[in-house]
Known about the structure:
Elements: E1 7-13, E2 17-22, E3 27-31, H1 47-50, E4 54-55, E5 61-62, E6 68-69, H2 71-87
Antiparallel strand pairs: 1-2, 2-3, 4-5, 5-6
Amino acid sequence: MIALHKIVHVKPKPNYTLVVTFDDGVEGEIFLADRLFGPMFEPLKDPAFFAQVQVDEFGAVCWPNGADLAPDALYRRLTEHQAAHDAS
């Protein structure tokens, strides 16, 4: 069975970066500048709007315009990056 992780805390940082903390304690920075395209994510290029990020009731990060990022994809991105870093 695949464990589904929820984000419990998010903090915006400069340069379109989020610090996310998951319910199992995994924490890290996610750089999003390369993912801010398309009609839902274009408004996030405004740093003031990007800073309005929150965690929704499903444990995903979201913004007031309805843009959101799935926690499982962010978790995988973080843990794969950490595993690659640990292996080097």
